[in-house]
Write a structure and sequence with these properties.
Oligomer: single chain
Organism: Virgisporangium ochraceum
Protein name: Glycerophosphoryl diester phosphodiesterase
Number of strands: 12
Order of helices and strands: EHEEEEEHEHEEHEHEHEH
Number of domains: 1
Shape: globular
CATH class: Alpha Beta
CATH topology: TIM Barrel
Strand order of the largest sheet: 1-2-7-8-9-10-11-12
CATH superfamily: Phosphatidylinositol (PI) phosphodiesterase
Structural class: alpha/beta
Strand content: 25-35%
Number of helices: 7
Radius of gyration: 17 Å
CATH architecture: Alpha-Beta Barrel
Distance between the termini: 11 Å
GO molecular function, one term: phosphoric diester hydrolase activity
InterPro entries: PLC-like_Pdiesterase_TIM-brl (IPR017946)
């Protein structure tokens, strides 16, 4: 099963921990802000603040945000999944210009129109994401219409074994999230997905070890 460390690419320490745990892919959230490609899950709230659900409100000037160029320089791009956040029209074109030409990189987003900017990039592994019932309905219709995708990523509570089997017919990789507990991992196995996205590195490490032993 494919293991993806959720958000661990957003910091140097997180990247180091995830790679040390042996995950297959490290996910990073990419935003564009004032011409820079920043790594952060937090959203831009107003002109001066950043906020993340369940977190605290911080002033932008008080935090030093890592940049995508640092992540690409410090990790094997083939171990990365870059999740495009927000709807900035310049985000995808800017990312397409800095991707390595000779290494596969996974690109994920719920805003599928962005992915057209990677059509000519032979090593871009495009993942269509859905986080709502409406989004899943659109995803199924899009795949039935023949749109190619290296993978799909769907919120776990939206899936059934039948839906997963259908998605497998169109996409080589069917990923789901959140899978942060043993019970959620059991449910992911029941669904028949080919990969899990998790913030629990201990769980991913155990999963990798059990798959290796089989």
């Amino acid at each position: 099963m494919i293991t993806v460390g959720h958000r661990f690419g957003n910091s140097a320490a997180g990247l180091r921990d995830a790679l040390g745990a042996g995950v297959d892919l490290v996910e990073a959230d990419v935003h564009r802000y004032r011409g820079r490609l920043e790594l952060r899950h937090s959203k831009w709230l107003g002109r001066w603040h950043l906020w993340d659900r369940g977190g605290v409100l911080v002033r932008r000037r008080d935090v030093e945000l890592p940049l995508l160029r640092d992540l690409l320089a410090g990790a094997d791009p083939g171990r990365l999944m870059l999740d495009l956040k927000g709807v900035h029209p310049g985000l995808a074109p800017a990312l397409a210009t800095v991707l390595p030409a000779d290494t596969p990189v996974w690109i994920c987003t719920q805003h599928w129109w962005m992915l057209r900017h990677f059509a000519g990039h032979r090593n871009a592994r495009l993942v269509l994401s859905a986080g709502s019932r409406r989004g899943l309905g659109r995803l199924r219709a899009t795949l039935r219409a023949g749109r190619p995708a290296a993978g799909v990523s769907v919120r776990r509570d939206l899936l059934t074994p039948a839906v997963v089997a259908e998605l497998h017919g169109s996409a080589p990789a069917v990923l789901t999230w959140p899978v942060d507990t043993e019970a959620e991992l059991v449910d992911a196995r029941r669904l028949g997905v080919s990969g899990v996205i998790s913030k629990n590195l201990a769980l991913l490490r155990t999963l990798n070890a059990s798959d290796t032993d089989r």
